[in-house]
Design brief:
InterPro entries: Enolase-like_C_sf, Enolase-like_N, Enolase_C-like, Mandelate_racemase_C, Mandelate_racemase_N_dom, MenC, OSBS/NAAAR. Its EC number is 4.2.1.113. Its cofactor is a divalent metal cation. This is o-succinylbenzoate synthase. It is an enzyme of class 4 (lyase). The protein is of the alpha/beta class. It has 14 helices and 15 strands. It has a seven-stranded parallel sheet. Strands 3-2-1-15 form a four-stranded antiparallel sheet, sandwiched between helices. The chain has a two-stranded antiparallel sheet with strand order 4-13. Helix 1 packs across helix 3 and helix 9 packs parallel to helix 11. The protein is globular and about 65 Å long. The mean pLDDT is 97. The chain binds 2-succinylbenzoate and magnesium ion. The site of 2-succinylbenzoate (OSB) has 12 residues, from loops. Magnesium ion binds next to loops.
């Protein structure tokens, strides 16, 4: 197949979160995001979403650095020549170091277009087989433990398949003890977003008694070595998030024993192709994976659902319902969760319609990039 991209539209959106979301590195009140639309000669559109945040807290990328990378480097590469497969575009992008979220946003839009041209759901184009996916929910740090228990209750009742609680020094062992007392049987995990060091090993070890499914990213965002020293001290499996930015990072982490589980975020690893390669490697090595979240709007959520249909995504991911974060999402239908399951859409591409009226409502500015006449 040949994909001829005629033009690309970058839109800068701003969406208010229903409730502030707090992690060990800061609080989010709203989400700024870049929506990427690639349009081919027949007027078919593919959609991607940059998951970078406004500030460089989670990683060094931001909405502005993503816009810069897309405008000045990545979009020109996508428009330069026809594309025969999304992987060909990833290869073109490999000449540019890092900037994985910017790459993933455009690569994801081309994957959507590619699947639409094939007339198959994106999940199927990626090799996924599941018809439903199991999901959990991530709960931010709350003002009090009572607030946390109240919020948790809501999601447990709704049937989410596991609950993730954010922790940081001073909001950890005591909080998890109270949570366990209130919900003895709920599948539970904790995410530290790099808030600890090896010196805190005893504190992390104290979490062992609560039967957590895993502890996510306890140590530094760029570390594999200290995690490899920590893991043998704990019964709780370590899951890496921030530390895994590529297939090679995943390979090294598994070789070193830095973790037993990997959280795959499409943006963090540079796209659906790399996400799939990490998935395949983990399947070979017997390490389960799950799909993380970046407070995505509907387009990003749809991509997460598609990749989660691959076989070795055996643990519930963070792809909650649209209504968990948004008053009104940018896709129709919105992502719905029933009994902790999302039904995988079977329409071509991402399988949800982008609601252009909502997109316009949230768009602050946009820019169109045309193929140069000679290409
Ligand atoms: O570490 O997984 C994370 C949100 C913002 C930044 C980092 C993370 C998170 C979450 C929420 O845990 C994921 C989601 O619900 O989208
Ligand atoms: Mg995380």
């Amino acid at each position: 197949m040949t994909i001829n991209i005629e033009y690309v539209i970058l839109r800068h959106l701003q969406m208010e979160l229903k409730a502030p979301f707090t992690t060990s590195f800061g609080t989010f009140q709203r989400k700024e995001l870049i929506l990427v639309e690639v349009v081919d000669r027949d007027g078919v559109s593919g959609w991607g979403e940059s998951v970078a945040f406004s500030a460089p807290w989670y990683s060094e990328e931001t909405v502005k650095t993503n816009w810069h990378m897309l405008e000045d480097f990545l979009v020109p590469l996508a428009l330069a020549e026809p594309i025969h497969h999304p992987e060909e575009l990833s290869k073109r992008f490999s000449a540019i170091r890092q900037n994985n979220m910017a790459k993933a946003a455009l690569e994801g839009a081309v994957w959507d277009l590619y699947a639409k041209r094939l007339g198959v759901p994106l999940s199927q184009a990626l090799g996924g087989t599941k018809k439903d996916i199991e999901v959990g929910v991530s709960i931010g740090i709350q003002p009090t433990v009572a607030d946390l228990l109240q919020v948790m209750e809501r999601y447990v009742v709704q049937g989410y398949r596991r609950i993730k609680v954010k922790i940081k020094p001073g909001w950890d062992v005591d909080v998890i003890r109270d949570v366990r007392r209130a919900f003895p049987d709920v599948p539970l995990m904790a995410d530290a977003n790099s808030a600890y060091t090896l010196a805190d090993a005893d504190r992390l070890k104290a979490l062992d008694e609560f039967g957590l499914l895993m502890i996510e990213q306890p140590l530094a965002a760029d570390d594999l070595v200290d995690h490899a020293r920590l893991q043998p001290l704990l019964q709780t499996p370590i899951c890496l998030d921030e530390s895994i930015r590529s297939y090679d990072d995943a390979r090294k982490a598994l070789d070193l024993g830095s973790c037993r589980i990997i959280n795959i975020k499409i943006g963090r690893v540079g796209g659906l192709g790399e996400a799939k390669r990490i998935h395949d490697l983990c399947a070979e090595r017997g390490a389960p994976v799950w799909c993380g979240g970046m407070l995505e709007a509907g387009v990003g959520r749809a991509h997460n659902i598609a990749i989660t249909t691959l076989e070795n995504f055996t643990l519930p991911g963070d792809t909650a319902a649209s209504s968990h974060y948004w008053e009104r999402d940018i896709i129709t239908p919105e992502v719905e969760v029933h009994g902790g399951l999302i039904r995988v859409p079977d329409a071509p591409g991402i399988g949800y319609d982008v609601d252009r009226r909502q997109v316009e409502r949230y768009t602050q500015f946009a820019k169109v990039f045309h193929r140069t006449a000679t290409a």
